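Lab notebook page, bench 4
Experiment: in silico fold of construct C2
Operator: M.H.
Input chain length: 642 residues
Purpose: comparison with the prior construct
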Amino acid sequence: MRHLALLTFLVVSILVNSLNSYAQSTLPDSCKLAIGTNLAGMFDWGTELPFVDRMRNAREWYTKDFDNPNGSPWSTDLQDSLALRPDGYPVSLPQIVNGHPYRQVVATIWAELDGWEEGTYTVLYDGEGELAWWGGFTNFIDHGNGRMTFDLDTAAGGNALEMRINRSEVGNPIRNIRVLMPGTESTYMDQPFSEVWLDRVRMFRSVRFMDWGQTNNWGQKDWTSWDSPALYAWNERQQPDYYTYAHNKGIPYELMIDLMNQEGLDGWVCVPYRASPEYIREMAQLFHDNLDRERTLTVEYSNENWNWLFGQAHWCSKYGELETGLPWPENTVGFVQRTMDIWTDVYGADTARIKRVVGVQTGWPDVAQRTVFNMRPGSFDAVAPTFYFGIGEDGDAALDALGSAATAADIAYWARRNITEEATPYLREIKETIADSLNIPMLFYEGGQHLTGQPFGQVQSYNQALLDIQRDTALYNIYNEWFDTLRTLQVGNEPLQLQHFSLVTGRSGQFGSWGMLETMHQDTSLIPAPKFKAVAEVLASDCEGIVSSNETVYATSNESLILYPNPASDEIFVYSEIDILTSVKLYDITGKLVRDLKRDLFEGFPLSPKPVSLHVSDLKRGMYFVVVCSDLEIQSGKVFLD
């Protein structure tokens, strides 16, 4: 996977930098889209599992009776009454809760193990106490001194795993529990990310952290808890040592930064809707000071502040009106403006390192216009709608009439109509009335298929057809048709930035099938993944045929280019039969030139059979691009440094 994608816009950058005669270039269709991905949030039932420590996606504590002679119910729901440490671990167990007859202990569960790797898991913890386990495992061994092992075996114990803390000592309570994937006990501190997951992520150049940061309903314990004017201080953010990231504040920013720096990724972050000015400033400072300068960060205030499914929409409307006296959506603009201004102030002369975007509602251009046109000109860099297609209200009614007789072909018919009749006209209107009128780019924060019924969250009568389309060739074809439509919206020399929603999630006719893949381990030769296939093919484009402003055509042929070894660690040998060589250059995935060997080193001869050597031991691991040039010919190839 790590060698799959030569990302289109990076190749364009490389070729342009390699051939200084390019004054202006236009992008061919194969280079017009730059597809990134949204990353899934943490859930105990999730199938996108980025961390080798599975405690990171454990469910939040629920409570059980410890000494009830009749046994405990599944949960006594007294977790909010317990005394906890700042990292979320109980200060001791069992605990007495006033008004309840039995002492309480805590438990967590992983309710879906489909995404877990087979093998022997290692459990480590600090402190003194007793852990108990139930579910899909065999060969459980307590080695003592805070170390346990078990073999994952869902056939023997079911497709779930529960862990209980039955005893935790005062003064030295159980804490820092780690549930480590097979083979990671000696490496998890240096490499917190799963290699299986990274191999999926490495095909992209950019990722959006909206769900990683639990942006929707951020900080809420329940549906009504959005209704407070109080803002959160910086010290109330998610901390790296918190016991689980399947939590209402998501994954810490520090791990977002680590991922981007380690893998050479650009990122997209969402500022929590109830973040105080101090919080926003400290968040911006953290990214400014710790994110590699070569990385580009897109910044957005919250997410879908018009979507009434989420607490932030209600909060922004209520407290925006109290603050400004303006109607919706104008009353939400002040929160967006404050965020953009603070990030701008923190970055100062470095604002080129960030893209400040205003998210807008695709299906309601009037709301989008009233939001963007009330922002201060020059305080933001782009407008960001979605690029979803669905089935529409008419499609839902027609499919509901078919019920269980509906097929994937029926879903495909209505999806194509939705693209033509609704999705495309909305995007063209936003582009023309907002982006073009302000002379700013249009980016896409989310998109892809939105094949869900109405009302959302209910099992539809045509549920099976919604599941079947996700593995059907028709969806692959529709994606390619949709990409062709989106290419018509791209202008200039920069590709259109799309953040697909999302990378890995299971199929659901009730709540939507959002992932390109169903699990990280999906064998697409056995279980088709049409969305993944369509996206991967776009990312694999070589961007050939770029023409300069004086119409000089540069031939591009990679047939005789050999890069060895690949992956490499110390040295890359470059073999090529290109005539009258002028340069050999090595670029990182941002397009930054990191090695540049000139013509005089080669004496004008072909490289084959004698190779040119590029020393790379001082470079970071990741994807790089080799570009070999003559006066009228170029060759390019990708190499991975381990």
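Observations: Residues 1-25, 544-557 have pLDDT under 50 and may be disordered. Residues 555-641 form a domain with the Immunoglobulin-like fold (CATH 2.60.40.2470).
Next step: discuss at group meeting.
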